[in-house]
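Exercise 7.
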Amino acid sequence: MGVAATDLPRAHGLAATWWRPKPQVGNTHPGATSPLGMVSACAYSGAYPTGYGRYTKNTEGVPEEMFGRLQASGFSHFQQSGTGAIRKYYNYVRVTPMVQPLDALGESWPLHDEVAEAGYYAATLDTGVRCELTVGTKVAVHRYTFPEHSSARVVIDLSCGGLAIEHGRTVPLRAQVESMGHGRAQGTVVMEGVPLSVYLDVDSPGWRQMLWYDRRLIDGGTRLDFDSIRHTTLRPFGMLFMGPTEPGQTIEVRLGFSLRGCEQARQNLENECGHARTAFDAVRSRTRVRWGDHLDRVQVEGGTPARRTVFSTALYHSLIKPCFADDESPFWPTSGPFAFDVCTMWDIYKTQLPLLSAIVPDRAADLLESLIRVCEEEGNFPVGYRMARGADRFHRQGSALVHTALADAHALGRVGLDWNWALVHMVDDLRRLYGEDFFEHGVVHPITHTLDLAYGYHCTAQVARALNDRRLADDLEERGRQWANAFDPGTGLLRDSEFYEGGKWNYSFRLLHDMAARIALAGGDRAFAGMLDRFFGFGAAPVTQPGLRPQPAEMAAGYALNRFEGLNNEPDMEAPWAYHYAGRPDRTAQVVHAALTWQFGTGPGGLPGNDDSGGLSSWYVWASLGLFPIAGQNLFLVNAPAFARSVLRTGGGEFVVETSGHRETPIGVDGLDRDLPAQYVQSATLNGEPLHATHLSAATVHRGGVLHLRLGPEPSGWGREARPPSLSDPPAKPKETR
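Solution. The predicted structure, written as tokens, is:
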């Protein structure tokens, strides 16, 4: 799901008014992965952006094909998941089974009979070789079934990296390769400043093994060393295993990876593959069990088969990234968690990180520990972090985003982190990059960073206050109130500025820490809800989506709509829930229902836009459960769920969302040809007690309990008066004691 151009039924109703400017493709891949594991493996064509598939780089409309067929030149390791132009495209250590001479290396062959399961990928090359891949946490195992041939080959190319697009290639800076005989070899390539080591064990009795360089065999050679490689001097290199095959003969290739040298790569291989002659089935089985355990932490009941398929796949995509390489940091020598592929923090901090915190709290804590260590070593919290030397700051996209996850973790009482030390880094990081201008002037452009930084100050103030540093907390909170400087009181929208992937309307409905004041700035509940109605297209005519290579005039006309871009563009992710703060949870229900019905489907074209490392898929999971996390505020908003009953297995217990009066609704791919009305919450109870508010504390959800929602076909008065909390709310009156 999501590996091909968006292919969904024509939307009806509200969803038909939304306009999708970004590439209409999910950019996922079907390769073998392990839950939050270090290694993935997939067929490699060189296409954008994962290395799998048919598309070239594009920024608008329908993606343009790079190849007219699904094809592969081999099978590579380490892929992005659902990103766009991320500039680090991995695809290292390409393994190619061949029945052609070495000169044919790099050619691509059509793929047939693909199979994709959690932890497993298989396909047949046009050459007749059946190829199966599985992965563990730090290993990959390939199994190739050959036809009869007098001189079959398995070729490992250590020089491979990146994509076959302009500026997409990754060239190793240094490398060494060693052939040790008996099917064993090892090598290290320095890619993007990171020493990636691999230890290979190939089960190919009677086959020869040789090193090769520039597609020429080095007979008798046992070692290659490259002290300095440039784009102009790079020639492919690696190792080769060659011999005759009987019909149906299988060759198993086991690869252990490490960022700390070949010896640790060997240990990783032995830890997961053992010393048996074959390891494929055992590794596949263990990874399948791990996936089962992770996916079992969110359960739903009811729903059509298509809706359940989309939900399960969304949960799967939510648990691929970040990659955890415990005890593998190449940048500091101590043991402990090392996480990379925090590629799209500006997307995942709203949806995916709260999901990880709920269902895999230990890994969420490990991620924060790793990010704090990055800040110690490199001087700032990263806004994007990948397997490369130096934090990728992505300064255009966002500022101070790690602060939200840290504030939530502290509010939930997460232990194991040195919170005083974390606070030091949170405070220091606020003054870096755009933060310096914000500190001095209270406003910074691009204007969205004013919102980011004000929110970061607020989140940091909450941690400081909880640690009893009141003077610091007061100062931080005062600066956090400067979010208002970003808005034009005359329009109720953000001031004119540059915007990253969107316009002022897309960013004007962020769920700030003082939504009561934000709504007052816009003229009150009615005016604010009216702006949202215009943004979401209530009463508007259907629009036409951009096609292939859209012209500038077409795109300009679309942007001029100032319209919700659906789930095609992530700045809009939280906007539907802004209605809650204006006393209109019924409108939230309508928008979310329309998105879940018309913007997701089964099959390769089932996503409306880039999955962005699981940020989009996590949105789908939360929206389907009837909950939405407000990152940094220890808060969940409540909405009508898509399933009759669901169970969220949190670290503290089980949080159950059950309903009465729930109506099963199909989604577009079920053949729906009309717009079905949304359902609305009529009343709610929490653990048997009436719940009049549309929100819950995150601590309540994580602790476990039963939320019962009575649903109906018409909007009700539920939640119209008890608004989610805002910073400017008057202090709660102390309860009387008797």
